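Hi R.,

Here are the chain sequences for the assembly we discussed:
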Amino acid sequence: QVQLQQSGAELMKPGASVKISCKATGYTFSSYWIEWVKQRPGHGLEWIGEILPGSGSTNYNEKFKGKATFTADTSSNTAYMQLSSLTSEDSAVYYCARSRLRDYFDYWGQGTTLTVSS
Amino acid sequence: QIVLTQSPAIMSASLGEEITLTCSASSSVSYMHWYQQKSGTSPKLLIYSTSNLASGVPSRFSGSGSGTFYSLTISSVEAEDAADYYCHQWSSYPTFGGGTKLEIK
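And here is the predicted structure of the full complex:
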């Protein structure tokens, strides 16, 4: 069965960077886009961007260019999102999700809670 | 970007009631997708490409619409349907609606 398992909660200081992982099982990792979504209370769901692990192709929401960087390791079926220069505005739950044809997100990870605080 | 506006923001429904949640797009989109998010969990795909039920989703859920107006209907609300519901489109890039919170009376 398809599963996306994300790394655990993170507590980071302002200005630091963090790398969140998303390990995929149960399907051909290289063939599906991994999408990244941010959720903050009162701000709904926000698409950060995506990576196609097989080719390394990436697309970013303009708002997150320079903030987020996506990578993927096909040997371990794991996608990563690095967030840099963290501020309190980055405190949120981050989800990875899967899409086949860049249309809908059919499976989601359990979410990673990031708290940025001094 | 295409802005999705969901209404109502909060809906209170009785068990067995039929309800409709709506999603209005700022520009025409080809398809709409819907997700259900229960408290403390990740979103779950409910309906894809406007009217197709995702695997395992009960048949009391249905979706319809076209252009700039889409809807999600629950034919007979059950207690387990209490959740936030989000619409989602992908034209130029993905955007989500602000969500509708469904409360059960």
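The radius of gyration of chain A is 13 Å. Chain A touches chain B through 19 residues (CB under 8 Å).

Let me know if anything looks off.

Best,
T.
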